[in-house]
Amino acid sequence: MAVQAGAPRVRAAVARAGAVAVACAVLAACGAGAGSPAPRGPRRGAGVTGRPPALGRPGGRAARRAGTITLAFAGDVNFARRTARLLAHPATAFGPIAALLRSADLTALNLETAVTSRGVPQPKAYHFRTTPAAFTALRDAGVDVVNMANNHVLDYGRVGLADTLAAARRARFPVLGIGANATAAWRPYLVTVKGLRIAMLGVSQVAELASSWVATPARSGEANAINLRRTLDAVRAARRAARVVIVFMHWGTEGMACADPGQLSLARRLAAAGASIIVGSHAHMLQGSGWLGRTFVAFGLGNFLWWEPSFSTSTGVLLLTLRPGRPVTSLSYRFVPATVSPAGQPVIDRGAAARRALAYYRSLRACAGLTARPG
């Protein structure tokens, strides 16, 4: 299977390409365990190895810990209505939380929109589209790569999808889970961080219009788990190409804080195929995180930068710290809670609000069937 190569933004020592910026401020521990776009050039620094998680306040200068790699993940982002206005100033679209996103080695989230001014609205209730300034805002916020295998990327059909792919290429911004055909849609994004090879895939499990949106050998579209065989084969192939395999899933039942049977079943199969880390979005709610055997799973990260009040304003940034040379099961994880503001921006929780949010987030692990430590 073909592989999409790349590397995170230059921060401390990786091959050049474009990658995902990670958040790096540690509020309180949630638990601990022992046609692809051309790559972007480095954004700052002189190598490409990024920084580990901050040991101080969110957004502050992190005390660097040698030999660690921090990954940051967040949930759903789009630019419509109140968040569309934020694109008038892309550099500040995400607000102060961008400092947290920029502080990591690799940062990823779900971009839930088409990037187009053309196309025909598809037969569904909600339609999202935006301008190429979205990629500028993401880059300025410290995001390196986005999942786009979701239930809005083809809102304006294949014309809109072609525009989206073209905009990503022009912006030199890596996107997951979409492509001109099935090979491109399921192609992993490969990046080397501090000598550690990481592969990342984006896949949707949303059933709405899946049969017409899924990419085929002769048709553009998204990677969708409706083609389960191809999804699992892609994970196995990624495992052969990299030591760490991350699958960004768009799945779950909207408004539910507990993972549904489809998520639980697919998570087990992804883990068996070789996924090291599984991160999810779509439910518009936070869902539980923890260990499924030897695979770390965060079922849902909620809305992050969002166009309207929707089910819940609870959100946050999940930080995973890896140690090269040691198994993924040695990673530590922390969740920095935040709340979606009336402007649609995520604002980090402080004090008592943060403590309550962390307690709630920890409680979600039970109905997800996950454990605090690897099995």
Which CATH first-tier class would you pick? Answer: Alpha Beta
Helix content: 10-25%
What is the overall pLDDT average?
87
Question: Runs with pLDDT <50, length 5+?
Answer: 9-64
Describe this structure as you would to a colleague.
This protein is of the alpha/beta class and 375 residues long. It has one domain: 4-Layer Sandwich (Purple Acid Phosphatase, chain A, domain 2), CATH 3.60.21. It is built from 9 helices and 20 strands. Strands 2, 3, 4, 7, 8, 17, 18, 19 and 20 form a 9-stranded mixed beta sheet that branches. It is globular and about 45 Å long. The two termini are 31 Å apart.
Layout of helices and strands:
Layout: E1 4-6, E2 28-32, E3 69-77, H1 98-102, E4 106-111, E5 114-115, E6 129-130, H2 133-141, E7 145-147, H3 157-171, E8 175-176, E9 178-179, H4 182-185, E10 189-193, E11 196-204, H5 210-213, E12 221-222, H6 228-241, E13 244-250, H7 261-273, E14 277-281, E15 289-292, E16 295-298, E17 303-305, E18 314-322, E19 332-340, E20 346-348, H8 351-363, H9 365-368
Parallel strand pairs: 1-10, 3-4, 3-17, 4-7, 5-6, 7-8, 11-13, 13-14, 14-16
Antiparallel strand pairs: 2-19, 3-18, 9-12, 10-11, 15-16, 18-19, 19-20
